[in-house]
Automatic annotation (TrEMBL):
GO MF term set: kinase activity
Coiled coil location: none
Pfam family, any one: APH
The protein's name: Aminoglycoside phosphotransferase (APT) family kinase protein
InterPro entries xref list: AGP_Transferase, Aminoglycoside_PTrfase, Kinase-like_dom_sf
Domain Aminoglycoside phosphotransferase: 50-235
Keyword Kinase listed: yes
Keyword Transmembrane helix: no
PANTHER family xref list: AMINOGLYCOSIDE PHOSPHOTRANSFERASE-RELATED-RELATED
UniProt entry keywords in alphabetical sequence: Kinase, Transferase
Length: 289
């Protein structure tokens, strides 16, 4: 496995040197994500290479999203787009700014909470007059329910009815009273940190103008609704967040299916079924909307 990963890193660095010359790719650190390979050179840039089917289409959407977010007058630092998309030899990628800071420090919720509150406040005050796509564009957009019905339900066995109900509950939510700029994969894991404080917010691929509860949902998944309720003063937003959280594994599975990432799809579906069986579909604490 180590040799295989080393070969993959080397192959990617060789490709990067041709596609984006003049940068020390031999010094890059490789990060293998669910939908991207990333080569990071501190103080130089981060090369994002989408993995799977329709990679160029996804790259184009991600680049447009990052451009739009950059015009939203955010009160937090985000990566600047440094290049357009380069396609060659079956790959495509684009270079973004490498922001200072590192991964979230190991700390209890009480330590992370104030920083998360501040970043959410910055998002809520940002302009929504920017050309961002509809919610869940990364996993099918308006076709997300159809992808679940056609491609995922037949693979869910005894959990299929719960998946159908979760997607319908999401569709039945009334429009949010106040839509906002949504990151779409919000949490300490996508913040860069220095000296215990966030220095930037990265990975904007899921961004949209929509229900702010979308950004509360992953916090519920990470910390539980009881903890998150201490930073959300609107019970309706928290209730909606539980409905969004129930579909998160299905969203990953749908995106993976569309990208031809079969093992990731099946892993996400297994995660959905496990949560159903454990009674933690909406909330790791067991709460329901």
């Amino acid at each position: 496995m180590t040799d295989e990963r080393s070969d993959r890193e080397t192959e990617l660095a060789v490709w990067a040197a041709v596609a984006f010359p003049g940068r020390p790719w031999h010094r890059a650190r490789h990060h293998h994500g669910a939908f991207h390979d990333v080569l990071l050179i501190p103080h130089v840039g981060a090369l994002r290479v989408p993995i799977g089917d329709e990679a160029s289409v996804r790259a184009a959407r991600e680049v447009e999203v990052l451009r739009a977010v950059g015009r939203a007058s955010l009160g937090i630092v985000i990566p600047e787009l440094l290049t357009g998309i380069v396609e060659s030899d079956g790959r495509c990628g684009y270079l973004v700014e490498a922001l200072p800071g590192g991964a979230a420090p190991e700390a209890p919720w009480s330590r992370h909470r104030p920083a998360l509150v501040d970043v959410l406040a910055a998002l809520s005050s940002a302009s929504i007059d920017v050309p961002l796509p509809p919610p869940r564009s990364w996993c099918g957009g308006a076709d997300f329910p159809a992808v679940v019905t056609r491609d995922l339900l037949p693979r869910l066995g005894g959990s299929a009815a719960a998946a159908e109900q979760a997607v319908q509950a999401l569709a039945d939510l009334p429009p949010p009273r106040r839509p906002g700029l949504v990151h779409g994969d919000f949490g300490a894991h996508n913040l860069l940190w220095a000296e215990g404080r966030p220095t930037g917010l990265i990975d904007w691929d899921h961004a949209c103008i929509g229900d702010v509860a979308i950004d509360i949902a992953p916090l519920v998944g990470a910390h539980g609704s009881a903890a998150v309720s201490t930073m959300v003063d609107d019970d309706d937003v928290l209730r909606r967040a539980l409905a969004h959280r129930a579909t998160l594994p299905l969203q990953v599975a749908a995106a993976a299916h569309l990208a031809g990432r079969i093992s990731l799809r099946d892993h996400a579906l297994a995660n959905f079924s496990r949560r159903c069986n454990d009674g933690t579909l909406h909330d790791p604490d067991g709460a329901e909307p």
